[in-house]
Recover the amino acids of this structure.
């Protein structure tokens, strides 16, 4: 055997804890809070409060947020759309969600899937609330998406841009 890999009798192996263990515990805490908040979606006020608190904690623990902050922001957007709350709040949270994408915090496929999910929810809500200005909200979300996708290389996603452009074109055609 090779003597370089052998311990001498007087040496003891010392286990040093990995510094990443603490980060994993923080991630698990945020992940648990996300799923707890998601379970509260039937109670709009409670769910919104839980998701907002999660985002604040996530931003405090990480510089600029993590995927859990992104997911919580996505849930806030969807909650406000489903409950037909103020369009400005929907767009505000949606802009925050796009900010996570622009900063490259979320993987490209996850971002595309999430944005498509939100835009689908928005489109179905816009159809249901066309008389109440739902199309204006959809229009503003589509243009915000296209703007964010053009803004930075991290958010550049031609397939998503094409789909969003087609949705925007369909919306404009339906209005005529």
């Amino acid at each position: 055997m090779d003597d370089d890999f052998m311990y001498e009798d007087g040496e003891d192996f010392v286990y040093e804890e990995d510094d990443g263990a603490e980060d994993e515990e923080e991630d698990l805490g945020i992940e648990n809070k996300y799923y707890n908040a998601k379970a509260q979606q039937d109670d709009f006020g409670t769910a919104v409060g839980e998701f907002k608190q999660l985002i604040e904690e996530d931003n405090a623990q990480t510089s600029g947020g993590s995927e859990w902050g992104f997911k919580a922001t996505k849930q806030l957007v969807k909650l406000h759309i489903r409950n037909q709350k103020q369009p400005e709040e929907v767009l505000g949270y949606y802009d925050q969600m796009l900010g996570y994408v622009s900063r490259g915090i979320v993987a490209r496929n996850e971002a595309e899937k999430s944005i498509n999910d939100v835009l689908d929810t928005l489109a179905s809500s816009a159809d249901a609330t066309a008389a109440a200005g739902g199309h204006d909200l959809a229009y503003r979300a589509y243009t915000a998406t296209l703007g964010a996708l053009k803004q930075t290389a991290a958010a550049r996603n031609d397939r998503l841009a094409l789909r969003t452009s087609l949705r925007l074109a369909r919306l404009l055609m339906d209005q005529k």
Notes: The chain has a mean pLDDT of 82. The longest helix spans residues 108-128. Residues 39 and 47 are 8 Å apart (CA to CA).
